[in-house]
Amino acid sequence: MSRPHALVVLAHPRADSLTAATAARARDALTTGGWTVDSLDLYREGFDPALGPDDEPDWTDAAKEYSAEVRAHMARVTAADLIVVVFPVWWWGLPAIAKGWVDRVWNRGFAYEPSTLHGKRMRWVGLAAGSAAHYATHGFDKALDLQLRVGISEYCGITDATVHLIHDTLAEPDVTGIDEALASRAGSAPAGRIR
């Protein structure tokens, strides 16, 4: 029986950032739990987030063949049972490189119309400088959940998706918040053993 496979996506320009340390902890927890892990560092791999004509959806042709770079990323998503996206929350949303990855890779005929992603699981893990109370007061937590879990994951057929925010990252840097994110479903197995 083959081991489950995860894709851990990192979206931060600095390799020494708390976001990078959190992604590394996710990779290590999953590996310890028996998963194989593909680590995708968008900055270090030189991913171009700008959507050009080659990767723009064709509304008359859902079978459009996208660029070689995008097809390679689609293959990595396809291979994963679990997708974990670790990112800093900038301006109450995804950083441009992560949004560009979704724009270019999660494309028509692959992620939607039709979706090939049913049955996958997804964890969005955002590192936020603000407190949980601040996010709740202004509804930023709900907005991120709606945008990422519903607007991207569920729209693309991934119903087992969660958004987990690790707060107060400037005051109390702590990468252990990823453990809760990996076990974010009530009654789920410990980190690294996501069902």
UniProtKB/TrEMBL annotation:
Residues 5-182 form the Flavodoxin-like fold domain. Keywords: Oxidoreductase. Pfam families: Flavodoxin_2 (PF02525). GO terms for molecular function: oxidoreductase activity. InterPro entries: Flavodoxin_fold, Flavoprotein-like_sf, NAD(P)H_dehydrogenase_qn. Its EC number is 1.6.99.-. NCBIfam families: PRK09739.1. PANTHER family: NAD P H OXIDOREDUCTASE-RELATED (PTHR10204), NAD(P)H DEHYDROGENASE [QUINONE] 1 ISOFORM 1 (PTHR10204:SF34). Belongs to the NAD(P)H dehydrogenase (quinone) family. This is NAD(P)H oxidoreductase. The lineage of its organism: Bacteria, Bacillati, Actinomycetota, Actinomycetes, Micromonosporales.
